[in-house]
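Hi, here's the filled form for the chain we discussed.

Project: internal
Contact: R.S.
Residues: 504
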Amino acid sequence: MSANEELPALSAVELRRRIGSKEISPVELLEACIARIERINPAVNAVTAVCYDRARKEAKAAEQAVVKGAPLGLLHGLPTGIKDLDDTGGLLTTYGSPLYREFVPEHDGAMVARVRAAGAIVVGKTNVPEFGAGANSRNFVWGATGNPFDPMLNAGGSSGGSAVALATDMLPVCTGSDTGGSLRIPAAICGVVGFRPSPGLVPVERRGLGWTPISVVGPMGRTVADTALLMAAQAAMDDCDPLSYPVDGREFAVPEPRDLGSLRVAYTEDFGVSPVDRAIRGVFREKIAACKHLFRSCDEKTFDFGEADRCFDVIRALNYAARYRDAYEKDPASLGPNVRANYELSAKMSLADVAWAHTEQTRIFRRFQQTFREYDLVLAPTTPVSPFPWSQLYLSEMDGKPLRNYYHWLSLTYVTTLATNPAIALPCGVDHKGMPFGLQVVAPFRADRALFAASHAMEQAFEAIPALRRPVPDVSRLSRPTPELVSIVTHAPERSVATAARPH
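And the returned structure, exactly as it came back:
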């Protein structure tokens, strides 16, 4: 393997350092990433629409800026993948929907513009479920994304393509978003890092209900430091988002040192409300036993999340009512089953339901914050099961018991969404089936920098403990295409673009 072929496996932080010191050129890094995408992507189907010609021009310009000694952005010269829910000017943006299979935005969305302004070079889009609904990145435009540890298994969602592109070293940084766990779940089951920031820290232009804090955009990376570097470029105040507030994103660029021995940690298998497979409960207890000595204290904690499931149902459905009413009323068949299910749930709700849900979310928020009067962090599993086949649209039962709806299996992450605390999915060894296990780490209200510091220290400590070390996929097993992943595209239903409503 040549030196250039090894470049994509380096951390984003190290690649940015080498670009700044003229040890490598943005041009050679881009070409190495493109070569890796061409070789590995057919096996996992993570990267969708690409813009190689434009990226090559931008890489050449980035190289010239380094040569001339011009000021360089935080992400200068780093090839980047953008989740296909965010608009990219001049580059196909489908939202995973056949309604938008030919849609090319005129302008970048706000977050994409900031990432590009920081010097990142957008190489392509990364796969998602249709309109981001669900935690299985498959759709009738691009097909399914396979898990890098076994392409026939689920890669998670809705930021599944980004997680897989990172895990296989196709790209050094990728963007994501999170409502019920879409940054955390794919990161957890692909062995990378996904950070759900506090609402408003990274402005969201495409959130239709601007004052509802459950949907955020944020960073993903192979390491905590890489993820923090991307966050530094994303965080800002922007009048497109009424929840945004003044922040100096550069404060996130390098995680602060943190002594794990000073931290008081609480842990829970299920937050008192979430379904979790018996085997995963056992794995989680083993992980806690392997890491609890690192902290000042590590105590099991009981939580009261009230009627979190019903609360999330209403607030999530409210967002779908705002986004998809026009499309549904024109032609329900124009929307996929997950999107239809959400909209139909919303249509049955009353103003009293909405008022109750926001009141219940406030109660959940206030109770959960009391935890951090005694503890610095809360640890929990990120996902309740080992990855299942991607051909199964969602998980319908667990331990022989039926689940409430197609997203009930995401409860471990959507309960923390309701609380609005920052949370990270941190690689933590493998589960009972040898698949990546992600530890969900939750910090106090708006303590995003503290969460980066603590999770960075945990990541470093985990590296010395074999049972907790980040797993890495064997990419040599990904040398052949997986035609099953794109076969579902041939069965796509016909949908008229005329029925489409922008999902913003």
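Let me know if anything looks off before we file it.
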